[in-house]
Amino acid sequence: MIEVVFNIPGPLREFTENRSSVRVDVKDGANLREALLVLFAACPGLRDRVLTESAEIRRHVNIFVANEDIRYTGGLATAVRAGAEISIVPAISGGITQCQGMVLRSYH
Amino acid sequence: MIGQTLDHYRIVAQLGEGGMGVVYRARDEVLNRDVALKLLAHGALDKVGSGHLLREAQTASSLSHPNICTIHQVGQTGDDFYVVMELIEGRLLSDLLTTTGLSMEIVTRYGAQIADALAHAHDRGIVHRDLKGSNVMVTAEGRVKVLDFGLATRMEREEISEITLSYDTLESKLVGTLPYMSPEVLRGHKADHLSDLWALGVLLYEAGAGRLPFRGNTGFEVTSAILSEPPPPLPPSVPHGLAAVIQRCLMKEPAERYQRASEVRAALEALQGAVLQSRHPSEETRGPRTLVLRGMEHLTVKNRDVLLLVGTNKGAFLLRSSRDRTKWDVAGPYFHGQGVYAMGYDGRNGRHRLWVSTNSLMWGTFLRSSDDFGRIWTNPLEASIRFPIESGAALKNIWQFCLGRADEPDLLYCGVEPAALFESRDAGESWSLIRGLYDHPQRPRWMPSNGGLFLHTIVPDPGKKERMYVAVSAGGVYRTEDSGSTWQARNNGIRVVFMPEKYPEFGQCVHKIVLHESRPQRLFLQNHWGLYRSDNRGDSWQDIARGVPSDFGFAMLMHPHDADCVFILPVESDEFRCTPEGRLRVYRTRNAGGSWESLERGLPQKGAYETVLRDAFSTDSLDPAGLYFGTRSGKLFQSRDEGKSWKKILEGLPQIVCVKAALIQIDGAPGSRPKPKPTAKRKTPRTKSVRRGKRR
User: Which of the listed residues B210, B243, B274 is the one where a domain comes to its end?
Assistant: First the structure.
């Protein structure tokens, strides 16, 4: 078995007991898909946020294994090595400021 | 530790860390189940001795109660002591409390469960000794589980006097425990069942008031407050009955407290019966996990109020008013940053449940509900609406939420993108894809419209259970006569401008269909170009666009009491999707499409290039009916006189995509328990009123 570390983005930490990283053990020679399955077993709630029901990584979620975007390293088949850091990162942080900065006005 | 095995427990991941040690998620390789394994810190053992701890844990492992975390095994390998416990999925009560969002109903309900757990343990001679928010978990189903019974180390007399005289900052391990300690324990008495009841009082106070009753920067200050100061008055949001229970738990003199945990439980259960909103539905029907929204003012909704659900592309807002509909309280944004395209209120069968779909660009689409008007929402671990894996499809958005007929109170529908219909027959617990429509041979030839390929309109026939209509952009109208097993395209007479064949069997870009329950055979339809009526359940359609500035538009609304009266909000064209001439006008027919008239009093008639989307138009069904619509530019308009005159009630919202009005009926709903009058002395915090808020 080898240990890998998942870096969890803020919006998903409600499913990791607020931890920013989660260590999991995977079998030697595992790929990203297998590592994700271990992570999802440890932290239910992450799976449906990271993958669609057809088991594809959501379009606006990027995953990096050791700083490499897995879209260029074989996707879910990307191999993970012992001690690898795997980062789940939202691709773009779509405009919540519009809402936070808004002012409600009333007319009576 | 991860990956190591203790006895037959394989450690999978770390769950948390506390003063007593580290808690791991582990796999019981023999019984093939997941468990929580607490590996005790060496220091914790030195002080009390391993034999003592083992005895305590063994005694505690005899407890079997739904509100107590079960201890499966206590073990030792080498120098390591560990306790194997039931794995509980949920959140710590202490975490829920810091979000300041627990309603008093929930506080009361959780309190009764904790009291029940204490009663069970006390009857067996087991005292908790360290009850606090971080030792209580709330599971996915809303059930309380008290952790670490009998595992708390006993404090020696010297240690206690050290704390009470400490002028230093609190030691970290005491920060969590000291504020819950009772006066007699601080004086050096042994902790007993009455000191557990004190701790329960502290916990209830904290949950009710959002802060601890006895506070200070040093151990000395906290101890002084516990020993000699009365707890500060509870805020008015805590109902009188709950405040009385808390006060009695916090009597300095143990003999003046409740003498048994079962008495506290009985008192809290009696209060549960008296609260207005929460009793029904129970935690069993709650979603798998809950979410309390932080730092937000919530609505206090009373019987007979009018509720407006407003969904925008960046979050949802809730508005309430009494039936005069002159003053609105506003709460939100809920789920800010996420698109809320479908909303609904289910008041059937004694429920008071809000439903929203939340669509995050990154993290997907989830259906959530709230049984307390927005304080607490379900936060499902798994998406309840999902395409079967073999379909290869993935949910993009939920566009429509629709209740089944009144006589089928557990029936719900959702229309989604990619175009499909989902159904729940258990009030939203589980959902399934309607295969009859999804497998329809014409479906592969449906074409995406401007907004995608989605099912946005669901119209159950109020007269016949098996009949229902749906509309798909762009697939057209489909009707079932057999509860969804088979579907027929029903677009005869509806024109298509974007295909060479102008009247095809299907492929129309229908925007909305409405009907009146008193004449279910007659339908009205707003098309992508074209206004239509069918007098034969959709078998054929005739053009009724006479006297409107444009027959393009999205929203269409049926008058709640007049089957001949329909409202629309025309926009200029598919290229210029704004109100014609910069004038915001509602059009009304009162003769089933024979003629249309403009309703514009109070609406801007100059430079108002607005768009009202298909689900952003609603009525409250009062008499006279209130009408409501929201614009893409974030303005919300209201009419209290069926459209004769209008006023703007809000602006500055994100793009409004959904407006739904609902009447709240708490008394006498069929199937509901008798409930107290809303005049019961129930004080909850007022939300910010719009009138008292910022003015232009």
Answer: B274
